[in-house]
Every structure is written in C-alpha cells, then in structure tokens.
Amino acid sequence: MTMADEQKQEQNEELEQDLQSQEVDVEEQKQVEDPLEEAIARVQELEAQLAETAKKEQDLLLRTRAEIDNIRRRTEQDVEKAHKFALEKFAKDILNTIDNLERALATPANIEDESIKALFDGVELTLKELLATVARFGVEPVGVVGEVFNPDLHQAISMQPMEGFETNQITTVLQKGYLLNGRVIRPAMVMVAA
User: Fold this and answer.
1) How many domains does the chain have?
2) Which branch of life, at top level (predicted)?
3) CB under 8 Å to 124, separation ≥6 — which residues?
C-alpha cells in the first residue's frame, strides 16, 4: 500500500467514525428530545387543566355571590314586610272600635239636649283622633259611594238598579273597608248599581 492509499484509508476510517459519532449524537438527541417533548406536552396539558379549573372556580364564585345577593335582598324584603304589616292583627282588632263609634254617630239622637250633644261631640272627636292615629300607621279606609266597584277592594253584597248611578258604581257602603300600607285587611261591604 502506498502512502496515498494509507491516507485515504485513514480518512475513510475518520469519516466512518465521524458518521458513527453523528449517528450516536442524533440518537442521543432523539432520546433527549422525546422526554422534552413529553414534558412540554404535559406542561401544556396541566396549563389547560389549570385554566379550566380557574374558569370553573370563577363561575362558582360568581354564582355564590349572586346567591348571597339574592338571599340578602329576600331577607331585606321580608324584614321590610314584617315592619310594614306587623300592625295588621292590631289594626283588624281596632277596626271594630272604629265601626262602633261610626254606628254611634249614625244613630239619630236628640242633639238639642246639651248632655247628649256633649256626648255626641266627644264620640265624634274620639273617632276623628282614632282615624288620624291609624292613618299615621298606614291604615286607610276604602269604599266610597260613587266609586267604581273593584273586587280587590270591595265585597258586593247585592246589585240593584239605582237612578243616578252607572253600572258597577257603589251605591251604598254597609261597612268600610281598610288597607294597611296598600294591602287589604278588610274589604268594604257595598251595594252596587246594576
């Protein structure tokens, strides 16, 4: 062998070694890249799960806040209604006294006698004061002659044709009705024009 052949053979061997080392490097690089790609994929998967969990948590937080606001609003309304209508039972009971005073004033009496006139005036003043007192607490009368019949506020006892009144107009109030802060505590008993 000549020197030139030996050099070529050495170069070939070096090239083969370089190729083998490059192949080993590529295999090592593949082995390194595979776990790296797995790690990147796992990180992306975990980030997606984290984002989904954060979204669910945010949704749950918003729903919880809304529910708390609803409960607070309902409680405030219940307390407000309790304050408004706490006097309902008392107001219903006091209506009997008002009715009795009105009946006493409606009976014909000889008011020319000074003692009867004084008694009559005292009952009238008592009734006015009692009506003013219950009005301050939100109790107001309903049922006036000439008013249009409203089944939410009035209870019709009878219907009869009457001159001077249109159909469904109240002709006679037998017993006044009352509202407490807009709620009917006793409907007015009325007679209605047919």
Assistant:
1) 1
2) Bacteria
3) 105
